[in-house]
Input
Amino acid sequence: MPAVTAAVPAVLVALAWWYWRGTVALWRRRGRGAAVPAWRAGAFSAGLVAVAVALLPPLDARAHAALSAHMVQHLLLLLVAAPLLVLGTPGLPLSWALTAPRRRALRRLVAGGGLRRLAASPGWLPAVWAGHVGVMWAWHAPGLYEAALSSPAVHAAEHATMLGTALAFWWTVLAGATRLARGGSVVAAWAAAAASGPLGALLVFASRPWYQTYAAVAGDRAALADQQLAGLLMWVPGGAVYLVAGVALFVAWMAAVERRAEQRAEQRAARRAAAGKLAAWMTIVVAVVAAACTPHVDQPTAEVTGDIARGRELVREYGCVACHAVPGVPVAQGRVGPPLGGIAGRRTVAGQLPNTTEQLARWIREPQEVSPGNVMPDLGVTEPDALDIVAYLYSLE
Output
């Protein structure tokens, strides 16, 4: 067994241990299933199993003798392992396996390094799509493919680049890593199906074997038949995965559009009801006072019940200081999000919700549910933690 292949089990076991250590730490802190539901942990585990099946014997040994087996390796990495690992949302558990100072340093690095801003740029989705499809096509070119068969190091590079670009593609498409409309993810999935299909068709309808290594071992006729089988695997099952993913993303997109429409309708109804009450009860004196006041004097409409001191610590713990400037906290000079001073005097939260303790806590806990695709990530903040953070934020001037 080549040294590269021998290292695979150790790497996979280390990743599994690291992920589960972080998951257990999260569950102890916030309750079992919080932040990382059991099904996501299961998806990550299944993704590691898929990598093991693809890169270890007997499939890896068979791949040196049959193109169809090698194609199964590629499909497992591109279409099974990568999306399962992404669905496991490994970033949060893996970071929680670190000590608190290192976890905070990692969050500052991610925020300060501009990764989120890069992933939110319009060019990110086309770039990761091109990388994913380009790597897929490049490694099936006869010259590169034969080099991978003859060199364990090149073979490892082939699989590493395939898995790496697939992870970037599926992370962008499934996790909503960009600020583009979800329609962009739908188009990307279907475009990947359209790009992989011709490669499979070329292998199926080729008049001679592409790869002489297989022809030298099995003969031209057997190698050509095996090549046709490999092409069918890429063309039909491979293309079907992209198409099904595109359909699922389209359904999710339509559901999100419907939810946003319902939220807007509810907000309009609430505004109309509020306007009616104001029109019924407003007096000339109130109108004069309101006209004389500046817009920022509105105060929260609900009683603040959280622990201010604990909220200050939670703002640091959850990494808010990496993206926001916080008065009185010298290290909190982030520019990704708005400054957190003076929140108590703002009319709205996130530009759309009334500024109440309930709505601010909801925004902190579920920013992607309130405004899908915005740059603020879901950090798994519990409801009690959110109320403490709200209490601290309302205390800032």
User: Anything to note?
Assistant: Residues 220-281 form the longest helix (62 residues). The chain has two domains: 3-259, 296-395. The beta strands are 348-349, 353-354. The chain has a mean pLDDT of 84.
